[in-house]
Design a protein that fits this description.
alpha/beta, FAD/NAD(P)-binding domain, 3 domains, five-stranded parallel β-sheet, iron-sulfur, Dihydropyrimidine dehydrogenase, metal ion binding
C-alpha cells in the first residue's frame, strides 16, 4: 500500500513561504513573499486532514475544491491540481495573493482549531497556478461556437472580467468597456505591487484579449455612449463597475491641501510603477516622500496606503483607527506586515479636525472607547471625553471605504433602478436590473466587498445571462423581446 501523503499536520509544522526582511522589502514594490519550491508545496499540502466537512471550501465564496487540489499537490499531480483549481476560479493565483485567507479558508481550517496551525491554502493556491504558467499548462481561451449574439460588459474589474471569460467560452461576442486605460480595475490601479505584481494581472487580461474579447479602454459610459446606446448595440449588458466613491469625513479642515482620497493616492503610485507620467506624483502632491503621513481607517485599503507611504520614503507613518486591533476589518496579517515595516498604529482614535489652514499640518484626534454593540453586533466606538491629542501630518489619507457612484446620472440613464445606497437594484434570482437585458454583479450590487466575491458574482451572472440569452429570438437591431414572447419561447 502506498504511503499516506495526507494528514501530516501533527508531524509537519506549518510553513509559509519566507518573507523578505522588512528593511529590504520596504525599499521596493515587489511582492514580499517568495513562492514555494515544489517539494515544500507538496509537503505543506500534505498537512491537510481531508476532513469530511471541508470548512475551508464552505467558507470560500467560490467553494473551491480545496481538499481535492491539496491532495493532488501532495501527490505531485500538479497539472491536475491546477486544472481542478482553475475549474472554479478564473483568477486562482490572484486570490492566492490577496484573499484574506485568515478570515476565510485558513481561518476555518479544522487543524487550525486543533492548534496545529492551518494548512497554508493561499500560498499553495498561488503556487499551483504560478507553476502552471511556468510549465505552459495555462491554455488559451477558446471561444465556443458562435451564437450570433453579443454582450457588453461595463467595467474591467474581477466581476466583469470573469463574466466576460465565461460568456466568451459560451460562444458570445464580448465587448468590455472601461474608463481606465488598462483592464483590471482595482487589481491594476488600487492594489499595490507588493501584494499583487502587475504582470500577474496583465497576463490574465492579455489571455482574454487573445481569446477574442474586445476591450474598449478609456471609454466612459454616458460620455462616449449612453447606456441605452450600448443596449441597442448588444443583446445583453452587464454592469460591473465596482464602487469608487470615497466615503467622506465631516470635520473642519477636510478640504485642506494634503488631505487626500486613498484611491487617488494608490492610483498615482501604481501609475508611476507602470512608468506613466504622473505630474501630481512628481510635484509631491501624491507622493509621501519625506512627509509625516497619517492614514485614517482600519481596512485593507488603509493597509495598502500605509505600506505604500513607507516605500515612498515617508518620514513617519501613523494609522488612526476608531476601534481596537481585535475589531479592525482589515487582515491581521497585513497589519503585522505594516508593523514590521515601521507603521505605527494609533488604536481607538478618530479625527476631529485637520489643522493648519490651507495646508494640513496636523490632525486633531480624539480617543475613543468601545460602547454597546451596534446593529452589526460590533461594539460601537464613542468619544472618550477629555482625550483629544494632536498628530503631526503633512499628508493625510482618508481610507474609510467606498460607496457607489450615481450611475443613473453618469450613464445618462435615469430609468436605471438603484437602492438608497446607490447600488443597482437587481432581481436576486436572475441578477437582472429593472431594465430588460441589463444585468449587474459585483460591488455595484453588494457594496464594497472582496475580490473573491466579485469573481463569484461574475461566474454566477454569466450563467444567468446565458440562460436569458438562450431565450432570445433573432431580433432586429434595437428590438427587444417582450416578457410575453419570452414566456412563449420558454414554454
Amino acid at each position: 500500500m502506498a504511503k499516506e501523503v495526507m494528514l501530516q499536520f501533527v508531524d509537519r509544522a506549518q510553513q509559509f513561504p519566507p518573507k523578505r526582511e522588512a528593511p529590504l522589502r520596504a525599499q521596493d514594490f515587489h511582492e514580499i513573499a517568495e513562492r514555494y519550491a515544489v517539494p515544500t508545496a507538496e509537503e505543506q499540502a500534505g498537512r491537510c486532514s481531508q476532513c469530511g466537512v471541508p470548512y475551508c471550501s464552505v467558507h470560500c465564496p467560490l467553494h473551491n475544491h480545496i481538499p481535492d487540489w491539496l491532495r493532488l499537490t501532495a501527490e505531485g499531480r500538479l497539472r491536475e491540481a491546477y486544472e481542478l483549481s482553475n475549474a472554479t476560479s478564473t483568477m486562482p493565483e490572484i486570490c492566492g495573493r490577496i484573499c484574506p485567507q485568515d478570515r476565510l479558508c485558513e481561518g476555518n481550517c479544522v487543524i487550525e482549531f486543533s492548534q496545529h496551525g492551518s494548512v497554508t491554502i493561499g500560498s499553495v493556491e498561488k503556487f499551483i497556478t504560478d507553476n502552471a504558467w511556468d510549465q505552459g499548462w495555462v491554455e488559451p481561451l477558446v471561444p465556443g461556437p458562435a451564437r450570433g449574439q453579443s454582450v457588453g460588459v461595463i467595467g474591467a474589474g474581477p466581476a466583469g472580467l470573469t463574466a466576460a471569460e465565461y460568456l466568451r467560452v459560451a460562444g458570445y461576442e464580448v465587448h468590455v468597456y472601461d474608463r481606465h486605460d488598462r483592464a483590471g480595475g482595482l487589481l491594476t490601479y488600487g492594489i499595490p505591487g507588493f501584494k499583487l505584481e502587475k504582470h500577474i494581472v496583465t497576463r490574465r487580461t492579455d489571455r482574454l484579449a487573445a481569446g477574442g474579447i474586445v476591450f474598449h479602454q478609456g471609454f466612459e459610459v454616458g460620455k462616449d455612449a449612453t447606456l441605452d446606446q450600448l443596449r441597442n448595440r448588444h443583446d445583453a449588458i452587464l454592469i460591473a463597475t465596482g464602487v469608487y466613491k470615497a466615503r467622506a469625513i465631516k470635520a473642519p479642515g477636510v478640504g485642506a491641501t494634503g488631505v487626500l482620497e486613498a484611491l487617488d493616492y494608490l492610483t498615482a503610485s501604481n501609475r508611476k510603477g507602470f512608468g506613466d507620467a504622473v505630474p501630481a506624483y512628481d510635484d509631491g502632491s501624491l507622493n509621501a516622500a519625506g512627509k509625516n503621513v497619517v492614514v485614517i481607517g482600519g481596512g485593507d485599503t488603509a493597509m495598502d496606503c500605509v505600506r505604500t507611504a513607507i516605500r515612498q520614503g515617508a518620514a513617519s507613518v501613523k494609522c488612526l483607527y476608531r476601534r481596537d486591533r481585535a475589531n479592525m476589518p482589515g487582515s491581521q496579517r497585513e497589519t503585522q506586515n505594516a508593523e514590521e515595516e515601521g507603521v505605527e498604529f494609533v488604536w481607538l482614535s478618530a479625527p476631529e479636525a485637520f489643522e493648519g489652514g490651507d495646508q494640513v499640518t496636523s490632525v486633531r484626534a480624539v480617543g475613543m472607547r468601545l460602547g454597546a454593540p451596534d446593529a452589526t453586533g460590533r461594539r460601537a466606538p464613542e468619544p472618550d471625553p477629555g482625550s483629544a491629542f494632536d498628530v503631526p501630518a503633512d499628508m493625510v489619507i482618508k481610507a474609510l471605504g467606498f460607496d457607489a457612484e450615481d450611475l443613473p446620472a453618469l450613464f445618462n440613464a435615469p430609468e436605471l433602478g438603484v437602492t438608497r445606497w446607490g447600488t443597482i437594484r437587481t432581481d436576486s434570482r436572475t441578477m437582472m436590473s429593472n431594465l430588460e437585458g441589463v444585468f449587474a454583479a459585483g460591488d455595484i450590487v453588494k457594496g464594497a466587498s472582496l475580490v473573491v466575491q466579485a469573481i463569484r458574482d461574475g461566474r454566477d451572472v454569466s450563467e444567468r445571462m446565458h440562460a436569458w440569452l438562450k431565450g432570445q429570438k433573432a431580433l432586429a437591431p434595437g428590438q427587444r423581446i417582450t416578457p410575453a414572447e419570452r414566456q412563449s419561447v420558454a414554454a
